[in-house]
Every structure is written in C-alpha cells, then in structure tokens.
Design a protein that fits this description.
By secondary structure, this protein is of the alpha/beta class. The protein has 3 helices and 3 strands. Keywords: Hydrolase.
Length: 62
Amino acid sequence: GASMYITSFPCLICMRAIVAAGIKKVIYMNDFYKPHHMDLFTKNRVKVKQIAEDKVRRKRNG
C-alpha cells in the first residue's frame, strides 16, 4: 500500500517489480512511458500521477 516517488515513469521490468512489491501509488516527473504499458498498473490498481519538476523544487526548497 506504499507510495513511490521517482524521476521518470518506470520501464516495464520496473513496473512489474512495483506491482510485485505491493506499491499502490506512483508519482513521477518525466513522461517516458508507453501508453500500452499503463495497463499493467491499471489492472493492478496502482494509481499514477505526474508532477511538474518546478513543483517538486518548490516543495523541496520550502
């Protein structure tokens, strides 16, 4: 049920590891995914959210 914060959308191998680990939310910045890979997350009820890099910097800098 954990959340995972990563810089880029995960590759298919990493997506499988994320599902196997039971992670339920993935937050990423860079959009390098292939739309048909999203089915793996959808079928396993993993929520996905993209966040803008400038928003991450603002949060990090207070």
